[in-house]
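Table S2 (continued). Query chain:
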Amino acid sequence: MSLSKIKISVFVLLLLFVSCSTHHKPGPVPSDVLGHEQMVDVLCDLHLADGLLTAAVVPPKDLAADTVLYSSVFAKHGTTSTQFQKSVLYYTHHNMIEFKLIYAEAVEKLNHKKAELMGW
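Corresponding output:
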């Protein structure tokens, strides 16, 4: 193997190493995306709403109950379904680590509420 081929091979390997090892830091969260705490709160309430619907607490004959229930969750938190969906898309595409932290915090908060209700 010639010296020039070795240099090119080393250069390519270094380039691959640098490109794979650099971490892309996400920029600031856009203003139309829900922040960390608001995402945690909305996720918690959406999971509670899902629980009400799946446990048949809300009568199944009322087909609009899920729409009303979810709309009330978004209204409570001063957001909309569209903004929430946009926020989920932002975090999953631009900052998955933050989204995992948000979701973990929401699960922890729900587990804490469950423990309180169960008297644990």
